[in-house]
Design brief:
Distance between the termini of chain B: 19 Å
Order of helices and strands of chain B: HEHEEHEEHHEEEHHHHEHHEEEEHHH
Strand order of the largest sheet of chain B: 2-3-12-4-11-10-1-9-6
Oligomer: heterodimer
Number of strands of chain A: 13
Largest sheet of chain B: 9 strands, mixed
Strand content of chain A: 5-15%
Helix content of chain B: 25-40%
Radius of gyration of chain B: 24 Å
Largest interface: A-B, 131 and 128 residues
Helix content of chain A: 40-55%
Shape of chain B: globular
Shape of chain A: globular
Number of helices of chain B: 14
Number of strands of chain B: 13
Chain lengths: 696, 490
């Protein structure tokens, strides 16, 4: 059989389709030899430019990998009562999840001090292991797929990183053992402190089992059974000395599928519903951990010292006992402050009401663990292309100089300004969500700003008395997200209405807009339009995108961007003012300077705006009307729900997820009912969260 | 170049023994380490790319017109660096500190991108646009049978950076930024610990056991077919790691420490270079990328997007222009020059030096800036800065300036008395040819990078109806887009 196989494979090499045909051949050849081990024939997708044509896979990994098929996103989703939810695929931890899980595990097992330190604010590992953990590849996100949690692809770079990190952690533990660290041996447990172990460096069975029972549960996020114990005993049996046994056990845990992926295979079948399963307690704890904390359930602790630990509750069967016990447990976790690795008075939960102390001087960084995790959702959903600096071209510099009122120190503020711009947005969404019981409409319409002095000066030109964060309301002409400086800021004199329009179309309406291919367009088609002293920014872009080949997309994009033209490229309101247009000239010393050549009226009115099926709008004039339109748009509200779904569930919605999506839309609508926050709190109680559908 | 036949035994062993996989550990760990194929045909070639952002100012980076050159057909001008600049210097950035190595350098002018790449860092290595489906050429090299052959590396590509990297890899149909290391000390530990015998022994045994756990999970009926396919891939890739571990060179860890550079950008650059050289020398990798940006502001901290970006787009602002110069000199001296110096001090088994075996490429994502750059040309990608050190085992003949500008064509940036006629930018050749040169110089095969359009190979950024064919500037050069740069091999 082997000879036949080799001969077949050799001829297959010549055709350069080693993976596909060899795998198929293997399956055929192995019938009668094994039932339990096969490789699917289409399991190795193309990696683009690979050595497949040579027929010989390169030795340095990265030649294979897994890429899920492109999702089929339904245009409309309606609730089919009683339908099973969409299938939940197996997925790996995202980079964010992995990093936080590592921190949770190493601190939960009290291994942090032996392997490095950590940064409290974001639970970021620092010290010797930080850079290694950071080698986890970035998740593949795109204009259509915004969320790292939804990236299920895995490639050789991931596996290399997992192997490196596990090896590095193990090496670090081995070093502690070599140094005969007292603390380390204390951590192993009471059964591991005998002189025989310390001196002779041999792991006794009692010590070994003790360590396995303690550590494996934390790492694998499940109830440890005999199969698990046997796995770890086998790992330990491969080594003869302590300095290899314990590091080996830890290394094995960090490479185990139950650590690297969100495995849910211990669920209970639902009678009469093929393929539908009810999650067990540990599986619910796992989902809760990543939903609420962006981390392993091990990350939930309270500052009182009692471990409000999800794994302990899972062990007690709290999540499946009854809805009452489940609800009580969720409330307990929501109240848990963060970060969880050290607690002090400053790290309490964010509970300051809007009407309370106006001196709300903390930024989003000092939030509960749950709130921090949700800021991450907003960060991934709303993050426009960052432009963290101000262009120093002559036109932009002249533009800034002419802004009235103008602070002489403005230009030197630009680094601080950008950080303040970003913080202001996250302050807003955080407070709208967690303090104000805000709804999606509030995100679009509320014109409260929590700004430090830098921001106040930036947006208004007036210097406040102090620089701490204060709440500013009723800034004229502003409302919600679309009038935030972070969204409007471009860093130069051009307001870039196309970028703004694309942002709204993709992120707030969930329309799929392909990026233009420059190869299919005229030369310099996708660069900014040339300067023209007789045209406003809007008119220049209208002229440039007027060709028929451009209109297919720009009919959808331009109106949304042009409606925001009453805000300049630094996010300042220019309603009622004119737009300066510039000429440039060379100076005698070779430098360039700009002068205002013309001032033209600004037009932020657009007509016949297509939103979606049955949602056309006759006219919109300015950012506030745009925001009002989006706030009342069913399509936009559903888009918010879709984005949150993708982030939470780590997959795209299917036509079967209509009920959960509709719940999310309805649940956030009612401010009296608690708005978005209330909906977020109740989400883990929904049937779709507590069950799992297995695909074919 | 002779090809080593890859020993597929371990992989096939894995597959065939699958029926007893649960009962027995994977057998790769039992193979003697010598089972992996050794390097054949002498030293392996190395590739290092250095990225600094925002392009170069022509007046600082390029030699001033007036040096002698020899013309060749096809719009080629060639200058011997030693003869032309040995008594002075190439430029303010490539100053006389480089003079001892003039015979090791290749300076190239007149290479243009056919697309507006903007500030995409990855454009330097061939991922021109965010919408492109092409990975950067280092990723192609890492997967090339012609580059690594059967040599295993701890890291196929060593990426070192402070805040970003210009290497982009394929992820299904997408192309995403590669991961990178930011701590020289941690990177050093990882590289050399991984090749340490006790770590390898432990890791190999652990991997064998771990793969059994994947197989066990895969048995569950609560997984879909696609889920099981995913688990198969995990097993396959972990198997690759196990195989690789037995083939990684066994090297002693050098007695070197890298104290935390903190905000000292100069020290950080030095350490990144030193770790790279150690890794290349030990055979733990053959490909490295060093991305030279800084999280801090100010030229003294090295290249930063703020100051340099502004300087690149605002020719004439002498304050920021000065920042631009100082920042790029930091890269020139602390990275490029330091790499050249260190690699020229390492002897290789064939009597040459590590530098001779290598191709070190310093580039940017934007073209050079002339003094009178019009504001509307702020992101132009003509005359991309290209300087190469080393010869890649005599693949290229160094020691020359090769100028591919079409001097009969209309200047690109307008005519101005401020710029001498001889220095006004003109269209040249397509940058794609540089990428082909580097790929082939490292041993990659056309079949491994060819994209099938515009003549059959290396049509990054081009299609038959693409910008270049519409743009008459390159119409005579399109047919050569898949070829090594003319005259670069001597």
């Amino acid at each position: 059989m082997i000879k036949v196989f080799r001969k077949l494979t050799k001829s297959v090499f010549a055709r350069g389709r080693y993976y596909l045909l060899a795998a198929t051949t293997i399956v055929v050849a192995m019938q009668g030899c094994s039932d339990g081990f096969k490789i699917d024939s289409d399991g190795l997708p193309s990696e683009g430019l690979l050595a497949e044509s040579s027929g010989i896979p390169p030795v340095n990994n990265s030649s294979s990998g897994f890429t899920p098929p492109a999702p089929k996103i339904p245009a409309d989703v309606t609730c089919q009562v009683g339908a099973d939810p969409g299938a939940t695929p197996l997925r790996r931890l995202s980079k964010w999840h992995y990093t936080h899980t590592m921190v949770a595990l190493l601190s939960g097992a009290d291994l942090i001090a032996t392997s490095g330190g950590y940064n409290e604010e974001w639970g970021v590992l620092s010290g010797p292991l930080a850079a290694v953990v950071d080698s986890i590849p970035f998740d593949a996100v795109s204009n259509q797929s915004l969320f790292s949690a939804a990236d299920r692809s895995v490639h050789g770079d991931h596996i290399d990183a997992y192997a490196f990190i596990a090896s590095s952690v193990a090496d670090s533990i081995a070093l502690q053992i070599d140094q005969k660290s007292t603390r380390f041996f204390d951590l192993l447990g009471a059964n591991c402190v005998s002189d025989a172990i310390r001196v002779n460096q041999i792991l006794s069975e009692v010590c070994r089992d003790d360590f396995i029972n303690k550590f494996a549960r934390l790492a694998l996020r499940k109830k440890i059974n005999d199969e698990d114990r046997l796995f770890f005993k086998n790992v330990a049996s491969d080594f003869t000395v302590l300095r290899e046994q314990v590091p080996g056990l830890i290394q094995a845990a960090l490479l185990h599928p139950r650590f690297l992926m969100m495995v849910e295979i211990d669920s209970i079948p639902v009678q009469g519903r093929p393929g539908l399963f009810r999650l067990n307690d540990y599986e619910i704890a796992q989902r809760l951990g990543y939903y609420l904390l962006g981390s392993s359930p091990l990350a939930s602790r309270d500052c009182a010292g009692t471990r409000a630990e999800m794994l302990d509750d899972a062990e007690r069967g709290v999540f499946t006992a009854s809805e009452t016990s489940r609800r009580a447990a969720f409330q307990k976790y929501l109240a848990a402050p963060g970060p969880t690795y050290s607690c002090n008075a400053a790290n309490g939960p964010l509970r300051n009401p809007i009407s309370g102390d106006p001196n709300l001087s903390h930024n989003y960084g000092v939030l509960s663990h749950f709130q921090k995790n949700y800021i991450n959702f907003y960060r991934e959903w709303l993050n426009p292309n960052p432009v963290p600096f101000i262009s120093e071209d002559a036109v932009t510099q002249k533009f800034l100089k002419d802004l009235e009122p103008f602070s002489p120190g403005f230009q030197t503020l630009h680094h601080g300004v950008y950080n303040s711009i970003r913080d202001e947005t996250y302050n807003f969404v955080g407070r709208m969500t967690f303090d104000a019981n805000g709804t999606y409409s509030d995100l679009l319409l509320n014109n409260s700003y929590w700004m430090n002095g830098t921001m106040v000066e930036y947006l208004t030109g007036f210097s406040p008395a102090a620089n701490y964060v204060t709440r500013i309301q009723n800034l004229p002409g502003r409302a919600g997200l679309l009038t935030r400086a972070q969204f409007l800021y471009t860093g130069n004199a051009d307001s870039h209405p196309i970028n703004r329009g694309v942002f709204i179309r993709r992120r707030l309406l969930c329309d799929q807009l392909p990026s233009p291919s420059p190869d299919a367009l005229p030369d310099r088609a996708i660069t900014t339009p040339d300067a023209n002293t007789n045209l406003t920014t809007r008119q220049r872009y209208e002229q440039k995108t007027s060709q028929r080949s451009c209109q297919g997309c720009h009919n959808l994009i331009n109106p949304l961007g042009f409606a925001l033209e009453n805000f300049d490229s630094f996010g300042r309101d220019r309603t009622g003012r004119s737009e300066p247009v510039y000429t440039t000239a060379k100076n005698a010393d070779g430098s360039t300077s700009a002068q205002v050549a013309n001032r033209l009226p600004i037009n932020a009115r657009v007509n016949n705006v297509y939103i979606g099926a049955n949602e056309n709008v006759a006219a919109i004039d300015g950012a506030v009307e745009m925001s009002q339109m989006l706030a009342s748009s069913g399509k936009s509200q559903m888009c918010f729900a879709r984005q949150l779904f993708r982030h939470t569930m780590g997959r795209f919605e299917t036509s079967q997820d209509g009920c959960l999506l509709q719940y999310m839309v309805n649940g956030q609508r009612n401010p009296a009912g608690g708005g978005i926050q209330r909906m977020l709190h109740a989400l883990p109680l929904q049937e779709a969260f507590l069950t799992k559908k297995v695909g074919p | 170049m002779s090809r080593v036949v890859w020993n597929r035994k371990t992989r096939r062993q894995f597959l065939i023994d699958g029926s007893s996989f649960l009962a027995l550990p994977f057998l790769a760990s039992l193979l003697p380490r010598e089972a992996g194929a050794q390097a054949v045909g002498g030293e392996a070639k190395r590739f290092v790319s250095i990225f600094s952002p925002n392009g170069q100012r022509s007046i600082d980076y390029e030699p001033r017109a007036g040096y002698a050159f020899t013309s060749f057909p096809g719009d080629i001008r060639e200058t011997n660096l030693q003869a032309a600049f040995g008594a002075s210097r190439i430029s303010e950035i490539l100053d006389n500190k480089f003079n001892p190595f003039l015979n090791k350098l290749t300076l190239v002018r007149g290479l243009d991108l056919a697309v507006d790449a903007g500030h995409n860092r990855s454009a330097m290595l061939g991922h021109f646009l965010t919408s492109d489906s092409f990975a950067t050429i280092d990723q192609v090299m890492a997967r090339s049978q012609g580059v690594y052959g059967s040599r295993a590396a701890v890291l196929p590509i060593l990426n070192l950076a402070n805040q970003d990297i210009h290497s982009y890899r394929k992820s299904g149909e997408s192309v995403v930024r590669a991961s990178f290391f930011s701590s020289p000390q941690s990177t050093f530990n990882l590289l050399f610990n991984f090749s340490n015998p006790s770590t390898r022994d432990r890791s190999t045994k652990v991997l064998n056991r771990v793969m059994a756990s994947y197989s066990s999970v895969k048995q569950s009926p609560q997984l879909s077919t696609e889920d099981k396919r995913m688990l198969d891939q995990y097993m396959s890739m972990f198997n690759d790691v196990a195989v690789k571990m037995n083939q990684i060179p066994q090297v002693a860890k050098p007695n070197v420490n890298f104290p935390d550079p903190a905000a000292n950008q100069e020290l950080r650059f030095q350490q990144m270079v030193d770790v790279t050289v150690l890794a290349l020398q030990a055979g733990l990798t053959q490909i490295a990328n060093i991305c030279c940006t800084s999280v801090e502001g100010g030229a003294s901290q090295g290249p930063n997007d703020g100051g340099w970006h502004g300087a690149h787009h605002a020719a004439g602002n002498e304050v920021t222009n000065r920042d631009h110069l100082v920042g790029h000199k930091l890269v020139a001296d602390q990275v490029f020059l330091r790499l050249i110096q260190k690699m020229s001090q390492v002897s290789t088994s064939d009597g040459k030096t590590l530098l001779d075996q290598s191709l070190i490429f310093w580039g940017n994502e934007l073209g050079t800036v002339s003094l009178d750059q019009p504001a509307s040309w702020v992101h132009d990608t003509e005359n991309m800065p290209v300087v190469i050190a080393g010869s890649g085992q005599n693949f290229i003949q160094p020691g020359r300036l090769l100028d591919y500008m079409q001097y009969g064509a209309t200047p690109l940036a307008g005519v101005s008395n401020a710029v001498p006629a001889a220095e006004q930018k003109r269209p040249g050749r397509l940058y794609n040819q540089l990428l082909v040169t580097l790929l082939q110089g490292m041993g990659a095969l056309p079949a491994e990078y060819a994209t099938g359009a515009a003549g059959g190979s290396m049509s990054y950024g081009l299609t038959s109806s693409g910008k270049a064919t519409r743009n008459a500037r390159y119409i005579t050069k399109i047919a050569e887009v898949g070829q090594v740069l003319p005259r670069i091999r001597g």
